[in-house]
Structures are given as structure tokens and as C-alpha cells.
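Lecture 7 notes: from sequence to structure.

We start with a single chain of 305 residues. Read the sequence below before looking at the structure.
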Amino acid sequence: MEQPPFSEAPPLPAWLAEQLPYRRRIFSSGNYRMHFIDEGCGPAVLMQHGNPMWCFLWRKVMQELLQQPVRVIAPDLIGMGFSDKPRDPAIHTLEFHGHQLSELIRALDLQDITIVGQDWGGPISGLAAALNPGRIAGAVFANTSLRLPTKPPRVTPFHRFANRPVISDLAFRLFNFPMPMLPKVQGNPASLGPAEMRAYRYPLRHLRDRTAPLALARMVPTRLEHPTIAQLALVDRWARNFAGPVELVWGCRDPILGRALHGNQELFPNARVTETQAGHFLQEEVPGELAAAINRVIATTTAPA
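Now the structure, written as C-alpha cells:
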């Protein structure tokens, strides 16, 4: 007998469950199981994290959103959080992750979705949107990049390091890189204190589970011939043609993607923009601004015609 695709997630340690008191489920598709939060009833909000985080990153935004009738869905990327962690780095492509998210959307039969993406969650949710254009009602993007490069990309020191063989493998595998550096990309480094870092490190506590952070770092295009470029073209095309409401919420003190705001404004010239003094993981610093943007988009998409 075929197994159902959804099951309840195993319990979390008590210290972590206290901070994440939401319904968690497992979606089994093909060879992989995806862990995700599925809480509330109402318009669907699909929130996708990036590297090297998991759905815990959205907990403060969820707390704000769930004061209203909404359904919040926050998946862990394969390789991250409590999703399966395959050890082959070659599976980690934008195409793979976009299709995994698309399968979840279709299995849940989500309609009129507001997608929310940060870091890699932007292009991954953008690709899922391109694969399911009729299901997407609105979008909120934060400190991400969905635009297709038209000239050789500017490569950050972090991504140059990630593409150096051997030394980057050792750093990511043995020292759980870039976890120790995360507070340094915040507007307020104290926003990622010991309690938060304990939660972010926990799913990657075993060396054998640390394949994805380096693989996702290497997914960032370093040249126009990079394998990610073809899928980014689909994301870019979807973004330029999307007619629903879009908001951009930005942490301007982000040393990684703070400058990417202007490129996203080119894709979404009519988007409302909220600039903040947060850093890269602005969910920890300005959750209220993110929740407000999401609520405005939902109000627009659900308003009577």
C-alpha cells in the first residue's frame, strides 16, 4: 500500500519546542522528506529560508502573523533543519530546490499564496512560483536576489572562499562554517545571541549532516556560465511578468545582500519598499516590518474586486 505523503514530525527537544510551538509536519516526496511548519487557517503564506538556516528563522514573524487568520507554511530546505540531509553535494541546485518546493505546494494544493523569501529562499520560491504561476497571489522578498546577471557577477570574499577546494570543505564540515560568522552579518550582532545560535546549530550538530551549507554557497553564480544561471532566467522572467502585489523589506546593514535592493526594484518597479537598519537575517531584527508587509499584501489580494 502506498504511504501517504504527509505525517506528523517527531518531537523536538523541550528547550527548542518551547521556542517553536507550532504544528510541524513531514512531506515525503521521492527520495526525500521535507520538514515544515503548517500552522493556522486562512490565506496561505509560504515562507522560505536560505543558507544555512531553517524554519526557526521565521518564528518571530509567525508570532505576529498568527494573530490574524492566516495559514503559515515554512519548509526546511532539503539538507537543512529537520529535512533529510543527503550527503551528495551535487543534488543541491536551484532547479532541485525549486522543484521540491513546487511539489510541496501541489501536494498541499495551495492556492492564492503569498510567497515570502529571504537569501536563497528568494530565487527558490521564485522558481516554485514560475512553475505554479496560477497559484501565486502576492510576494514579499527580503535580502535576496532574483535578478538574472547580465555581466560577470561580483563575487564576495565569502563566495570566493566557498569555491576554494579542500580548505572550504574543511571549514564548512569541521567548523560548521558559516555558523560562527552569522552575528557579524547582522545590524545588531546581539540579535543572534547564544540562545539563537544554539537553535540554528542544532540541526547541523553532526559532521555528516553538513553537506548543504557549502553546496548552497557554491550555487551562487560566480560566472555567466554557472549552472544556476539557466534557472535564474526562469525566475527573472516570472518576476518581470508577475502582476500581483509585491513588497520588498530590506536590511540595509547587510554586508552580503544589502546592495541587492536596487536589482530587485528593477524587477518589481511598483513594489513598496521598507528599508531598515537590520542586517542579513532581518527576521531576527525587524519581524514586525516583515509581518506588516505580508499583511498588506494579503489585504490587497483578498480585497473584494
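DSSP finds twelve helices and nine strands in the chain. Keep this in mind for problem set 3.
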